[in-house]
Design a protein that fits this description.
This protein has 49 residues and is mainly alpha-helical. The protein has two helices and no strands. The protein is elongated.
């Protein structure tokens, strides 16, 4: 079982990964639907790992 410290580290790395994806196109404006698709794809990718 993960410790609280490990969970926090995982959460921070997840946010960092998502920020890097979004920063690839700094001038792009994302709709709610696009952000939802991005987050869903990220989570599904983690599930397959």
């Amino acid at each position: 079982m993960s410790t609280e410290k490990e969970i926090i580290m995982f959460q921070k790395s997840t946010v960092y990964d998502l920020l890097q994806l979004i920063k690839r196109e700094p001038n792009k404006t994302y709709t709610t639907e696009e952000l939802e698709e991005l987050l869903t794809a990220y989570v599904k990718g983690l599930e397959q790992s």
